[in-house]
């Protein structure tokens, strides 16, 4: 039985999982769970993820939710294929740097960029109106985070060091959507963050993943 991902092609957290699978060259089936019809709150799906959210990964007997746990599982299971996303052959300090930037993505970068992207891009697609004050507030928070990234990326080609890792990959889905909002300037005004974005978003695996996003 092959790998199944339950989710939607436009969902950032689903895209994080697909990006990891594509980096590793793993074949998968995307099973559509349509948030617009409430499919994620139906008992058969809640049996897979008790939080009733996408994505879910099913790999034989292994069923996982939380996209960051799933991307780490993929990076670990397929450590031999494609890039060494967790620097498993590296020193303790090198692996710790991957963990550090994975945490920064989840704890510092994720909350403001998710709120900004929802307000500026997703909400209008769902028929709502963007609240400019929310966008400004979240952009203010993200700006401070990206100042830290600018300093880091001035010294290091990728977030965890000289190699592309899962820490970089986990940032791609939300940054991709940020670039489609008027706040893309948060990236384009920071030369090292921009160079990093141009590099990570030009990877063949990301281009393949992006081709599946409907807009
Ligand atoms: C968040 C999943 C999530 O918010 C993860 O997997 O990383 N921390 C979790 N999923 C959204 C779709 S955006 O990708 C979702 O399922 N929303 C519907 C809901 O919460 O009811």
Topology overview:
Elements: E1 3-7, H1 12-23, E2 28-32, H2 43-46, E3 56-59, E4 62-65, H3 67-77, H4 92-125, H5 132-155, H6 166-178, H7 185-188, H8 191-200, H9 204-211
Parallel strand pairs: 1-2
Antiparallel strand pairs: 1-3, 3-4
EC number: 2.5.1.18
GO biological process, one term: glutathione metabolic process
Protein name: glutathione transferase
Unreliable segments of 5+ consecutive residues: none
**Count of helices?**
9
Shape: globular
Indicate the percent of residues in helices: 55-70%
Sheet/helix structural class: alpha+beta
Keywords: Transferase
Domain GST C-terminal: 91-215
Pfam families: GST_C (PF00043), GST_N (PF02798)
GO cellular component, one term: cytoplasm
Question: Can you tell me about this structure?
Answer:
- It comes from Ensete ventricosum.
- Its EC number is 2.5.1.18.
- Residues 91-215 form the GST C-terminal domain.
- This is glutathione transferase.
- The chain is of the alpha+beta class and 215 residues long.
- It contains nine helices and four strands, in the order E-H-E-H-E-E-H-H-H-H-H-H-H.
- A four-stranded mixed sheet has the order 2-1-3-4, covered by helices on one side.
- Helix 4 packs antiparallel against helix 5 and helix 4 runs parallel beside helix 6 (166-178).
- The longest helix is centred in the middle third of the chain and has 34 residues, at 92-125.
- It is globular and about 45 Å long.
- It starts with a strand and ends with a helix.
- The relative contact order is 0.14.
- The mean pLDDT is 97.
- Bound molecules: S-Hydroxy-Glutathione.
